[in-house]
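Chapter summary example.
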Amino acid sequence: MKNVRPPTRDREVIYGVNPVMEALKAGKRRFYSVTVKPGHKKSGPVGDIVALAESKRIPVDYQPVDEIAKRERIEGHQGVLANVSPPLYVNLDDLADPSSAPNDYLLAALDGVMDPRNLGAIIRSAEVFGVSGVIFPYDRACSYTPVAAKASAGAGERMKLCRVVNMAETIRRLADDGFTCVALEEDAERDFDSAPGGPLVLVLGGEGTGVRELVKKRCGNTAKIPMKGGVGSLNVSTAAAIAFYIASNRD
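The structure predicted for these 251 residues follows.
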């Protein structure tokens, strides 16, 4: 199944200590340059980035990063920016081989998450709890932008990210291939307090909209995060972290 579209841009600016360092370590992106504030501490995290960049023969510029950040509307840069190629996305075929997957193989599918900060937080939790890949659509959803990269603390550089054209068709394909697909919905009848063994896909919906009906139908299974309070709902990134934790502790 071919799902990868060519990128619409050839470079972007990522920022923050963890995103830049993780991108340098992962080696998946091409680095055109690294920009840091003059006068940084050589023994600190920015100094570590400079040392690693120089070891890879990446140009390092010393400029007023605050001025660049203001012009580019960047927040939380921590004194370091990097001009890099766009993130690399994998094909669904690189994720969907349950025949060789371990019993605890876990994927996350995001059906319409629009906020890049939520996407980044979900990817960060996914990496922490051993999720093998995060799938999200091209349309009506955010991509792994520099904002998402910052929110993920660079976890997206370690995670396999897959963008697909049709989420409902993707879930059908995964189910046919032997994955158990569970849509997390706040009005589901059963609690997601344990996860089935075998290859599993956890499907989370967009902010305020939830999992779309056709995607839910393709899953065939729904569950909700058990809650005791009176608020009645969770932010999608919080729900994802809880679900990933539960799934990571199955036998």
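To summarize the output: The two ends are 31 Å apart (CA to CA).
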